[in-house]
Protein backbone atom coordinates (compact mmCIF):
# COMPACT_ATOMS: atom_id res chain seq x y z
CA UNK A 1 0.00 0.00 0.00
CA UNK A 2 2.86 2.38 0.88
CA UNK A 3 4.53 1.93 -2.51
CA UNK A 4 1.34 2.70 -4.43
CA UNK A 5 0.64 5.78 -2.35
CA UNK A 6 4.19 6.97 -2.91
CA UNK A 7 3.79 6.42 -6.66
CA UNK A 8 0.64 8.53 -6.71
CA UNK A 9 2.12 11.21 -4.47
CA UNK A 10 5.22 11.52 -6.65
CA UNK A 11 3.11 11.58 -9.81
CA UNK A 12 1.02 14.51 -8.60
CA UNK A 13 4.00 16.34 -7.13
CA UNK A 14 5.69 16.23 -10.51
CA UNK A 15 2.61 17.51 -12.33
CA UNK A 16 1.94 20.20 -9.73
CA UNK A 17 5.48 21.60 -9.97
CA UNK A 18 5.72 21.45 -13.76
CA UNK A 19 5.17 24.68 -15.63
CA UNK A 20 2.23 23.37 -17.66
CA UNK A 21 0.78 21.23 -14.88
CA UNK A 22 -1.15 19.06 -17.33
CA UNK A 23 -2.27 15.46 -16.97
CA UNK A 24 -1.59 12.90 -19.70
CA UNK A 25 -5.31 12.23 -20.23
CA UNK A 26 -8.61 14.14 -20.04
CA UNK A 27 -9.91 11.88 -17.25
CA UNK A 28 -9.10 14.29 -14.42
CA UNK A 29 -9.96 17.42 -16.38
CA UNK A 30 -13.75 17.23 -16.07
CA UNK A 31 -14.17 19.14 -12.81
CA UNK A 32 -15.29 22.37 -14.47
CA UNK A 33 -17.84 21.03 -16.93
CA UNK A 34 -21.59 21.68 -16.72
CA UNK A 35 -21.41 23.53 -13.42
CA UNK A 36 -24.45 25.30 -11.97
CA UNK A 37 -24.36 29.07 -12.37
CA UNK A 38 -23.87 29.62 -8.63
CA UNK A 39 -20.82 27.34 -8.50
CA UNK A 40 -19.29 29.11 -11.51
CA UNK A 41 -19.84 32.45 -9.75
CA UNK A 42 -18.07 31.22 -6.61
CA UNK A 43 -15.18 29.75 -8.58
CA UNK A 44 -14.65 33.05 -10.34
CA UNK A 45 -13.50 34.39 -6.96
CA UNK A 46 -10.88 31.65 -6.49
CA UNK A 47 -7.24 32.31 -7.53
CA UNK A 48 -6.07 31.08 -10.91
CA UNK A 49 -3.21 29.02 -9.45
CA UNK A 50 -5.65 26.91 -7.43
CA UNK A 51 -7.83 26.23 -10.44
CA UNK A 52 -4.96 25.46 -12.84
CA UNK A 53 -3.32 22.94 -10.47
CA UNK A 54 -6.54 21.21 -9.41
CA UNK A 55 -7.53 17.88 -10.92
CA UNK A 56 -10.97 16.29 -10.71
CA UNK A 57 -13.60 14.40 -12.67
CA UNK A 58 -16.83 16.00 -11.46
CA UNK A 59 -18.39 18.54 -9.15
CA UNK A 60 -19.24 16.87 -5.83
CA UNK A 61 -20.93 19.93 -4.35
CA UNK A 62 -24.32 18.98 -2.88
CA UNK A 63 -27.15 21.31 -1.88
CA UNK A 64 -28.07 22.84 1.49
CA UNK A 65 -24.67 23.28 3.13
CA UNK A 66 -25.20 26.39 5.26
CA UNK A 67 -23.68 25.96 8.73
CA UNK A 68 -22.50 22.38 8.16
CA UNK A 69 -19.13 20.68 8.67
CA UNK A 70 -17.81 19.26 5.40
CA UNK A 71 -14.75 17.06 4.85
CA UNK A 72 -13.03 16.97 1.44
CA UNK A 73 -10.98 13.82 0.91
CA UNK A 74 -8.02 14.38 -1.39
CA UNK A 75 -8.61 18.11 -1.57
CA UNK A 76 -5.56 18.88 -3.71
CA UNK A 77 -5.04 22.62 -4.20
CA UNK A 78 -8.38 23.38 -2.55
CA UNK A 79 -10.72 24.35 -5.39
CA UNK A 80 -13.65 22.40 -3.95
CA UNK A 81 -12.67 23.34 -0.39
CA UNK A 82 -12.95 27.06 -1.11
CA UNK A 83 -16.16 26.57 -3.08
CA UNK A 84 -17.57 24.73 -0.07
CA UNK A 85 -16.17 27.41 2.25
CA UNK A 86 -18.47 29.95 0.63
CA UNK A 87 -21.48 27.63 0.64
CA UNK A 88 -21.27 26.58 4.30
CA UNK A 89 -21.00 30.22 5.37
CA UNK A 90 -18.92 31.76 8.11
CA UNK A 91 -20.50 29.53 10.77
CA UNK A 92 -19.81 26.37 8.79
CA UNK A 93 -16.53 24.51 8.57
CA UNK A 94 -14.57 22.80 5.80
CA UNK A 95 -11.67 20.38 6.33
CA UNK A 96 -9.40 19.44 3.45
CA UNK A 97 -7.28 16.29 3.64
CA UNK A 98 -4.51 15.39 1.19
CA UNK A 99 -1.28 13.41 1.31
CA UNK A 100 0.54 15.64 -1.16
CA UNK A 101 2.46 18.55 0.43
CA UNK A 102 2.99 20.34 -2.89
CA UNK A 103 -0.71 20.64 -3.57
CA UNK A 104 -1.55 21.48 0.05
CA UNK A 105 1.02 24.28 -0.02
CA UNK A 106 -0.95 25.97 -2.80
CA UNK A 107 -4.23 25.49 -0.94
CA UNK A 108 -2.91 26.89 2.35
CA UNK A 109 -1.23 29.83 0.67
CA UNK A 110 -4.61 31.45 -0.03
CA UNK A 111 -6.39 30.60 3.22
CA UNK A 112 -6.50 34.09 4.75
CA UNK A 113 -7.01 35.78 1.38
CA UNK A 114 -10.09 33.69 0.64
CA UNK A 115 -11.55 34.37 4.07
CA UNK A 116 -11.25 38.12 3.45
CA UNK A 117 -12.68 37.77 -0.04
CA UNK A 118 -15.74 35.99 1.35
CA UNK A 119 -16.13 38.61 4.09
CA UNK A 120 -15.30 36.27 6.99
CA UNK A 121 -13.59 37.50 10.15
CA UNK A 122 -11.46 34.36 10.13
CA UNK A 123 -11.04 31.37 7.88
CA UNK A 124 -13.58 28.56 8.19
CA UNK A 125 -11.17 26.22 6.40
CA UNK A 126 -8.44 23.92 7.71
CA UNK A 127 -6.09 21.58 5.91
CA UNK A 128 -4.57 18.31 7.14
CA UNK A 129 -1.79 16.34 5.49
CA UNK A 130 -2.42 12.62 5.76
CA UNK A 131 -4.06 9.58 4.28
CA UNK A 132 -7.75 9.16 3.53
CA UNK A 133 -7.50 5.54 4.74
CA UNK A 134 -6.65 6.72 8.29
CA UNK A 135 -8.67 9.78 9.26
CA UNK A 136 -8.46 8.82 12.93
CA UNK A 137 -4.73 9.62 12.84
CA UNK A 138 -5.71 13.14 11.76
CA UNK A 139 -7.96 13.59 14.78
CA UNK A 140 -11.28 13.33 12.96
CA UNK A 141 -13.72 11.91 15.49
CA UNK A 142 -16.59 9.47 15.17
CA UNK A 143 -19.93 10.99 14.11
CA UNK A 144 -18.40 14.45 13.68
CA UNK A 145 -18.89 15.29 9.98
CA UNK A 146 -22.12 16.31 8.24
CA UNK A 147 -20.98 15.70 4.66
CA UNK A 148 -17.96 14.01 3.09
CA UNK A 149 -17.03 14.90 -0.47
CA UNK A 150 -14.24 13.74 -2.76
CA UNK A 151 -13.30 14.55 -6.34
CA UNK A 152 -11.63 11.75 -8.30
CA UNK A 153 -9.43 10.61 -5.41
CA UNK A 154 -10.86 7.41 -3.92
CA UNK A 155 -9.80 5.55 -7.06
CA UNK A 156 -6.20 6.41 -6.12
CA UNK A 157 -6.42 4.57 -2.80
CA UNK A 158 -4.93 1.07 -2.57
CA UNK A 159 -7.39 0.19 0.24
CA UNK A 160 -10.83 1.43 -0.68
CA UNK A 161 -12.53 -0.65 2.00
CA UNK A 162 -10.65 1.32 4.67
CA UNK A 163 -11.64 4.59 3.00
CA UNK A 164 -15.35 3.83 2.97
CA UNK A 165 -15.18 2.34 6.45
CA UNK A 166 -13.57 5.53 7.76
CA UNK A 167 -16.19 7.65 6.02
CA UNK A 168 -18.95 5.65 7.72
CA UNK A 169 -17.21 6.11 11.08
CA UNK A 170 -16.85 9.88 10.92
CA UNK A 171 -20.22 10.74 9.39
CA UNK A 172 -22.99 11.80 11.71
CA UNK A 173 -26.19 9.73 11.56
CA UNK A 174 -28.15 11.07 8.55
CA UNK A 175 -24.88 12.47 7.17
CA UNK A 176 -24.02 12.15 3.51
CA UNK A 177 -21.19 10.91 1.32
CA UNK A 178 -21.24 12.76 -2.01
CA UNK A 179 -18.31 12.00 -4.27
CA UNK A 180 -17.26 12.00 -7.91
CA UNK A 181 -14.97 9.32 -9.25
CA UNK A 182 -14.01 7.12 -12.16
CA UNK A 183 -15.65 3.71 -12.54
CA UNK A 184 -14.81 0.88 -14.93
CA UNK A 185 -17.13 -1.55 -16.68
CA UNK A 186 -14.93 -4.50 -15.66
CA UNK A 187 -12.03 -5.44 -13.38
CA UNK A 188 -8.71 -4.28 -14.76
CA UNK A 189 -6.00 -6.86 -15.51
CA UNK A 190 -3.16 -7.01 -12.98
CA UNK A 191 -0.58 -5.56 -15.37
CA UNK A 192 -2.74 -2.46 -15.91
CA UNK A 193 -3.70 -1.98 -12.27
CA UNK A 194 -0.01 -1.64 -11.35
CA UNK A 195 0.90 0.79 -14.13
CA UNK A 196 2.23 4.02 -12.60
CA UNK A 197 0.86 6.33 -15.29
CA UNK A 198 -2.55 4.66 -15.26
CA UNK A 199 -2.62 4.93 -11.47
CA UNK A 200 -1.87 8.64 -11.54
CA UNK A 201 -4.37 9.21 -14.33
CA UNK A 202 -7.21 7.71 -12.21
CA UNK A 203 -7.63 4.69 -14.51
CA UNK A 204 -5.77 1.80 -12.87
CA UNK A 205 -7.65 2.20 -9.59
CA UNK A 206 -11.08 2.78 -11.10
CA UNK A 207 -13.66 0.69 -9.30
CA UNK A 208 -15.60 -1.95 -11.22
CA UNK A 209 -19.15 -0.81 -10.55
CA UNK A 210 -20.50 -4.16 -9.35
CA UNK A 211 -17.59 -4.59 -6.92
CA UNK A 212 -18.24 -1.08 -5.67
CA UNK A 213 -21.86 -2.02 -4.93
CA UNK A 214 -20.76 -5.14 -3.07
CA UNK A 215 -18.25 -3.19 -0.99
CA UNK A 216 -20.77 -0.51 -0.08
CA UNK A 217 -23.30 -3.10 1.06
CA UNK A 218 -20.68 -4.90 3.12
CA UNK A 219 -19.86 -1.71 5.03
CA UNK A 220 -23.46 -0.65 5.72
CA UNK A 221 -24.32 1.44 2.66
CA UNK A 222 -27.29 -0.74 1.65
CA UNK A 223 -28.53 1.76 -0.92
CA UNK A 224 -26.78 4.55 -2.76
CA UNK A 225 -27.67 6.65 -5.78
CA UNK A 226 -25.99 8.18 -8.82
CA UNK A 227 -26.57 11.89 -9.39
CA UNK A 228 -24.35 12.18 -12.47
CA UNK A 229 -22.88 9.73 -14.94
CA UNK A 230 -21.02 10.58 -18.15
CA UNK A 231 -18.48 8.78 -20.33
CA UNK A 232 -14.90 9.58 -19.31
CA UNK A 233 -12.85 10.48 -22.40
CA UNK A 234 -9.15 9.62 -22.28
CA UNK A 235 -7.90 11.78 -25.13
CA UNK A 236 -4.53 10.05 -25.38
CA UNK A 237 -4.05 7.55 -28.19
CA UNK A 238 -1.18 5.71 -26.54
CA UNK A 239 -3.09 5.15 -23.32
CA UNK A 240 -6.29 4.28 -25.17
CA UNK A 241 -4.40 1.54 -26.99
CA UNK A 242 -2.98 0.31 -23.70
CA UNK A 243 -6.36 -0.10 -21.97
CA UNK A 244 -8.07 -1.62 -25.01
CA UNK A 245 -11.86 -1.89 -24.84
CA UNK A 246 -12.28 -1.19 -21.13
CA UNK A 247 -14.97 1.44 -20.65
CA UNK A 248 -14.77 4.23 -18.04
CA UNK A 249 -17.36 6.67 -16.72
CA UNK A 250 -17.21 9.67 -14.43
CA UNK A 251 -20.02 9.31 -11.91
CA UNK A 252 -21.17 11.16 -8.81
CA UNK A 253 -22.53 9.05 -5.95
CA UNK A 254 -24.89 10.03 -3.16
CA UNK A 255 -25.00 7.80 -0.08
CA UNK A 256 -26.63 8.59 3.27
CA UNK A 257 -25.60 7.11 6.61
CA UNK A 258 -29.00 5.83 7.70
CA UNK A 259 -28.40 2.68 9.76
CA UNK A 260 -31.50 0.51 10.25
CA UNK A 261 -33.50 2.68 7.85
CA UNK A 262 -32.28 1.50 4.44
CA UNK A 263 -32.88 -1.94 2.96
CA UNK A 264 -30.92 -3.83 0.32
CA UNK A 265 -33.90 -3.72 -2.07
CA UNK A 266 -36.65 -1.26 -2.91
CA UNK A 267 -39.74 -2.12 -0.87
CA UNK A 268 -43.31 -0.87 -1.22
CA UNK A 269 -44.97 0.75 1.80
CA UNK A 270 -47.48 2.90 -0.04
CA UNK A 271 -45.57 6.10 0.73
CA UNK A 272 -45.86 9.40 -1.12
CA UNK A 273 -43.35 12.28 -1.20
CA UNK A 274 -44.29 15.83 -2.19
CA UNK A 275 -41.59 18.40 -2.84
CA UNK A 276 -42.69 21.72 -1.36
CA UNK A 277 -39.97 23.81 -2.98
CA UNK A 278 -37.48 26.03 -1.22
CA UNK A 279 -34.16 24.38 -2.05
CA UNK A 280 -32.04 27.15 -3.63
CA UNK A 281 -31.50 26.57 -7.32
CA UNK A 282 -34.30 24.00 -7.40
CA UNK A 283 -37.38 26.12 -7.00
CA UNK A 284 -39.56 24.01 -9.32
CA UNK A 285 -37.84 20.63 -9.48
CA UNK A 286 -35.35 18.79 -7.29
CA UNK A 287 -33.39 15.70 -8.28
CA UNK A 288 -32.50 13.32 -5.47
CA UNK A 289 -30.65 11.27 -8.08
CA UNK A 290 -30.75 10.57 -11.80
CA UNK A 291 -34.04 8.67 -11.59
CA UNK A 292 -35.85 10.61 -8.90
CA UNK A 293 -36.98 14.09 -10.02
CA UNK A 294 -39.53 15.75 -7.75
CA UNK A 295 -41.69 18.49 -9.23
CA UNK A 296 -42.94 21.03 -6.73
CA UNK A 297 -46.40 20.14 -5.47
CA UNK A 298 -46.65 16.88 -7.45
CA UNK A 299 -47.20 13.75 -5.29
CA UNK A 300 -44.67 11.05 -6.16
CA UNK A 301 -44.89 7.40 -5.19
CA UNK A 302 -41.59 6.33 -3.60
CA UNK A 303 -40.02 3.19 -2.18
CA UNK A 304 -39.11 2.91 1.48
CA UNK A 305 -35.45 3.74 0.88
CA UNK A 306 -36.15 6.89 -1.11
CA UNK A 307 -38.63 8.00 1.52
CA UNK A 308 -36.03 7.44 4.28
CA UNK A 309 -33.46 9.50 2.39
CA UNK A 310 -35.88 12.40 2.18
CA UNK A 311 -37.45 12.10 5.61
CA UNK A 312 -34.31 11.53 7.67
CA UNK A 313 -31.81 13.90 6.07
CA UNK A 314 -31.34 17.64 5.76
CA UNK A 315 -33.88 17.55 2.91
CA UNK A 316 -36.72 16.72 5.32
CA UNK A 317 -38.03 20.31 5.77
CA UNK A 318 -38.62 20.57 2.02
CA UNK A 319 -40.79 17.47 1.64
CA UNK A 320 -44.18 16.35 2.86
CA UNK A 321 -44.25 12.61 3.44
CA UNK A 322 -47.51 10.68 3.40
CA UNK A 323 -47.51 7.20 4.92
CA UNK A 324 -45.12 5.15 7.02
CA UNK A 325 -43.76 1.62 7.16
CA UNK A 326 -46.57 0.13 9.20
CA UNK A 327 -47.78 -1.95 6.26
CA UNK A 328 -45.66 -3.67 3.63
CA UNK A 329 -46.96 -4.31 0.11
CA UNK A 330 -44.06 -6.31 -1.33
CA UNK A 331 -41.36 -5.24 -3.73
CA UNK A 332 -41.49 -1.71 -5.10
CA UNK A 333 -42.08 -1.56 -8.85
CA UNK A 334 -38.99 0.25 -10.08
CA UNK A 335 -38.65 1.12 -13.73
CA UNK A 336 -34.94 0.87 -14.55
CA UNK A 337 -32.09 1.67 -12.20
CA UNK A 338 -30.40 4.81 -11.02
CA UNK A 339 -26.93 4.16 -12.47
CA UNK A 340 -26.89 4.98 -16.18
CA UNK A 341 -23.96 2.62 -16.78
CA UNK A 342 -24.33 -0.24 -19.29
CA UNK A 343 -24.49 -3.60 -17.51
CA UNK A 344 -25.71 -7.06 -18.37
CA UNK A 345 -29.32 -7.95 -17.65
CA UNK A 346 -28.47 -9.97 -14.55
CA UNK A 347 -26.11 -7.40 -13.09
CA UNK A 348 -26.90 -4.10 -11.39
CA UNK A 349 -24.39 -1.46 -10.36
CA UNK A 350 -26.64 -0.05 -7.67
CA UNK A 351 -27.71 -1.79 -4.49
CA UNK A 352 -31.33 -1.07 -5.31
CA UNK A 353 -33.18 -0.69 -8.56
CA UNK A 354 -34.37 2.82 -7.77
Please describe what this structure looks like:
This protein has helices at 2-17, 37-43, 48-52, 79-88, 101-109, 111-117, 160-170, 190-193, 196-200, 209-219, 237-243, 304-311; strands spanning 69-73, 93-98, 125-129, 145-151, 171-184, 207-208, 225-231, 248-256, 271-275, 285-289, 292-295, 300-302, 319-322. The strands form 3 sheets. Strands 1, 2, 3, 4, 5, 6, 7 and 8 form an 8-stranded mixed beta sheet that branches. The protein is of the alpha/beta class. Strand 10 and strand 11 form a beta hairpin. Helices cover 28% and strands 21% of the residues.
Core attributes:
354 residues; 12 helices; three-stranded antiparallel beta sheet; globular; 21% strand
**Which percent range fits the helix content?**
25-40%
The structural class is alpha/beta
The overall average pLDDT, rounded, is 91
Global Rg: 20 Å
Q: What share of residues are in beta strands?
A: 15-25%
Choose one word for the global shape. globular
Largest sheet: 8 strands, mixed
Spatial gap, N to C terminus: 35 Å
Give the topology string: H per helix, E per strand. Answer: HHHEHEHHEEHEHHEHEHEEEEEHE
**Uncertain residue segments:** 336-348
Tally of strands: 13
Helix count, per DSSP?
12
Topology of this structure?
Blueprint: H1 2-17, H2 37-43, H3 48-52, E1 69-73, H4 79-88, E2 93-98, H5 101-109, H6 111-117, E3 125-129, E4 145-151, H7 160-170, E5 171-184, H8 190-193, H9 196-200, E6 207-208, H10 209-219, E7 225-231, H11 237-243, E8 248-256, E9 271-275, E10 285-289, E11 292-295, E12 300-302, H12 304-311, E13 319-322
Parallel strand pairs: 1-2, 1-4, 2-3, 4-5, 5-6
Antiparallel strand pairs: 5-8, 7-8, 9-12, 9-13, 10-11
